[in-house]
Amino acid sequence: MLIAVAGNIGSGKTTLTKLLSSHYKWEPHFEDADDNPYINDFYEDMQRWSFNLQVSFLKERFKNMIDIRKSGKTVILDRTIYEDAFIFAPNLHAMGLMPSRDFDNYFQLYELISSLIEPPDLLIYLRASVPTLVDQIQTRGRKYEDSIRLDYLKRLNERYEAWVDKYKLGKLLIVDVDKTNFIQNKEDLSSVISKVDAELFGLFK
């Protein structure tokens, strides 16, 4: 199986991926944003580097999806290929940070790639308000994220909600991060695990 965790910057995707991987003994695959060759340049000059960054992420996620399905293992994935195509790239385009020619080229490439991959067996969406995102971003202290603007996070949240509202590719579990502290509260984590059990196995443990 493939389980994917989706959510805005700072929503807790990596942490939940680690916690569920440990509980279920699933193999975790993490987003390697820190290692992306364009990430620092992007946050310094979004308009110049937006297309490069998005194509780079698309390539890596496509490779990961193919490798995961070939492995035959149950894997939990931190962020999905769909978020790039329906949230981040369109948002950059709408903000005037990616030209229409580049965006059209990017999305046509995504459509070709998406026709060759299987969607996750379960998508876990971490819903979080902007104040919660800001708190968690500041807590983890990634230097390149210092310049992220509040309006940028707000726009991303709006696109996440629109995408999730129309998501029909498979099973979907929504976790309200504002009300569910799975990082520090064991009962909240147990509640998330019970909901995952119900979606994947049709029962509560």
Structure description:
The protein is built from eight helices and five strands, in the order E-H-E-H-H-E-H-H-E-H-H-E-H. It has a five-stranded parallel sheet with strand order 2-3-1-4-5, with helices on both faces. The protein has a single domain (2-201), classed as 3-Layer(aba) Sandwich (Rossmann fold), CATH 3.40.50. The protein has 205 residues and is α/β, with parallel strands linked by helices. The radius of gyration is 17 Å and the shape is globular.
Number of strands: 5
**Shape call:** globular
Strand content: 5-15%
User: Which CATH C-level class is it?
Assistant: Alpha Beta
Our Rg estimate from Cα atoms comes to: 17 Å
Helicity level, as a percent range? 55-70%
Provide the structure class: alpha/beta
- Can you tell me the number of structural domains? 1
Query: What is the CATH topology assignment?
Result: Rossmann fold
Strand numbers in spatial order across the main sheet: 2-3-1-4-5
List the helices and strands and how they pair.
Layout: E1 2-7, H1 13-24, E2 27-29, H2 39-44, H3 46-71, E3 75-78, H4 81-94, H5 100-114, E4 122-127, H6 130-140, H7 150-165, E5 171-176, H8 186-201
Parallel strand pairs: 1-3, 1-4, 2-3, 4-5
Helix pairs in contact: 3-4, 3-5, 4-5, 4-7
Could you provide a short overview of the structure?
With 205 residues, the chain is α/β, with parallel strands linked by helices. It is 57% helix and 12% strand.
List keywords for this structure.
Rossmann fold, 5-stranded parallel β-sheet, 8 helices, globular
